[in-house]
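One such given next:

>
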Amino acid sequence: MKTGVLVDPRTPLLGHLCRAGLGLTAGQIAQPGFQLHALLGGHFLEHDAHLGQLQRDNFRKAVKAGVKMSFGTDAGVCSYDKSVRQFAMMVQYGMTPMQAIQAATSNAADLLGHSDLVGSIKPGKYADVIAVSGDPLQDVSLLEHVQFVMKDGKVYKQ
C-alpha cells in the first residue's frame, strides 16, 4: 500500500493493483484543504499547488479504475485533528460517501492484513464504533463531528 499520487496513468500500474488485490492510501489528496496550515513559505505552497492538482487527478483515475483505496494521512502535512476533513475531499474527488467510509474501515483493514480483527462490526472483532448525528451517506462531512466513540467495547465519548 502506497500513496501512489504520482502514478503515471499511461502505465498498467492501476490495473495491476486491482488484479493483485493491492491498494493505495488517499492521504495526499487532502493537501489543498491544509495549505493554510502549512508553516512553510510561499515557495512551498506554489510548488504544492501544482503537485496537489496532479495528485487529485491521479486519485480520480485510481477510483475510476477500481483500485482499493484506504483512508490515510501523510503524517506531517496537517495536524491529526484536521485529517478527518479528508472524507469530504475523497467524495469531492470521485468517491461515493460509502467508498470513503469503506476506505477508513474495511479497505484499510484488508490492505493492512487485519480484516480478521478490525474493519467491520462482526462477532469476534474489536468493538470499535463511532456514531454521528445524521446520515453520513447523505453528508459525509458529518464524520467531522463524532458524537459517540467506542473502542474495544469501552465507551470513550457519548
Observations:
- Residues 13-115 form one domain.
